[in-house]
UniProtKB/TrEMBL annotation:
GO cellular component: a single term: membrane
Gene3D superfamilies, per database record: Alpha-tocopherol transfer, CRAL-TRIO lipid binding domain, N-terminal domain of phosphatidylinositol transfer protein sec14p
Lineage: Eukaryota, Metazoa, Ecdysozoa, Arthropoda, Hexapoda
Any GO molecular function: phosphatidylinositol bisphosphate binding
A Pfam family the protein falls into: CRAL_TRIO
Positions of region (Disordered): 1-30
PROSITE patterns from the UniProt entry: CRAL_TRIO
Name under which the protein is recorded: CRAL-TRIO domain-containing protein
Biased composition (Basic residues): 1-11
Positions of the CRAL-TRIO domain: 121-286
InterPro entries: CRAL-TRIO_dom (IPR001251), CRAL-TRIO_dom_sf (IPR036865), CRAL/TRIO_N_dom (IPR011074), CRAL/TRIO_N_dom_sf (IPR036273)
Organism: Photinus pyralis
Coiled-coil residues: none
Length: 320
């Protein structure tokens, strides 16, 4: 059964304290499936107003971006089609120079951290999701953004290494960015640190903090609009010290620490778009539904295969 929330709300962007007068999509089904079609008109309006996406100049800008990549010759992208390059331009508000730096960082990160991308398949995503450590609820918040939820207190380092958590994170992000909504609106990260112990702390390091920062800020074509931290224990300050050297004022403003104050969290994410444990209305939905959808969707299988992931590609009658 699908649950639809009829809601329109102005969007607060990460770069301003003022509410933008932009209406977001009113449909928000509980559905373990990506929206792989064209964005609704409200999102396209947001793209025009907030990230400088002009339908009249988009094709030419993409072509100029492609030419710059070839001219520089510093990277060899596995794809240079319009849809792929558009992801990087959207994150950088169609600034070609900034988009080029991002795509270069993207490939340099993959080369420097090849272990995050080797021998990974959807079973990795299934096992981490089943453990509840990393999940993506099958619905969006009131702004139309998806939430990437980490419950790190549930992480058993004997069951999953930090590398496996990074593998799952990168796979989830590669899937999430297939939605044009996500390319335009960005996403939200939420860290529930309830149950975090010294055992978890010993697996942290400045290197890991830098890798997380690279993924969320400098090396992936997804704009993280806000990072919410809830239920943090006393040990959080020790872990957060690893991140502080990488955070400028803009990034610090995107990190919101709520503790156990769910009313504070609700100022940014309304309760009808949250699980019950955070004062919301939603149960924990079956993560297997996401995996079944990914395995059964030809477009997603081909996308993952192009990135070097192991995925079962559903063949249609014309391919048999």
């Amino acid at each position: 059964m699908l649950s639809f929330f009829k809601k329109k709300k102005s969007v607060k962007t990460a770069d301003t304290n003022e509410n933008e007068n932009v209406e977001m999509p009113s449909d928000n089904p509980v559905l373990s499936a990506l929206d792989l079609g064209e964005p609704p008109e409200e999102v396209l309006d947001y793209a025009r107003n907030e990230i400088n996406e002009d339908p009249d100049t988009r094709v030419q800008i993409i072509e100029d971006f492609r030419d710059l990549i070839y001219e520089r010759g510093e990277i060899e992208p596995h794809r240079t089609d319009d849809a792929f390059l558009l992801r990087f331009l959207r994150v950088k508000k169609f600034n070609i120079r900034h988009a080029y730096k991002l795509i270069r960082n993207y490939y340099e990160f993959k080369e420097a951290n090849s272990e995050f991308f080797e021998n990974v398949d959807l079973e990795h995503l299934q096992s981490v999701g089943d453990a509840g450590v990393i999940t993506v609820p099958p619905y969006r918040d009131q702004t139309g953004r998806r939430v990437l939820l980490y419950r790190l207190g549930l992480w058993d380092p004997k069951q999953f290494t930090t590398t496996e958590l990074f593998q799952a994170t990168m796979l989830i992000l590669e899937l999430a960015i297939l939605e044009q909504r996500a390319q335009i609106l960005g996403g939200i990260a939420m860290f529930d640190l309830g149950g975090l112990t010294m055992q978890h702390f010993w697996h942290m390091s400045p290197v890991i903090a830098k890798q997380i920062f690279d993924i969320m800020v400098t090396s992936f074509p997804m704009r993280i609009e806000c990072v919410h931290i809830v239920n943090q224990p006393w040990i959080f300050e020790m872990i957060f010290n690893f991140f502080k050297p990488f955070l400028n004022d803009q990034m610090r403003a995107r990190v919101k620490i709520h503790g156990e104050n769910m009313e504070s969290l609700h100022e940014d994410i309304e309760p009808q778009f949250l699980p019950k444990r955070y004062g919301g209305v939603h149960p924990d939905y079956n993560y297997t539904d996401w995996i079944d959808y990914f395995n059964a969707t030809e477009q997603i299988g081909k996308e993952l295969k192009s990135l070097g992931y192991t995925a079962r590609v559903v063949e249609d009658d014309g391919d048999r």
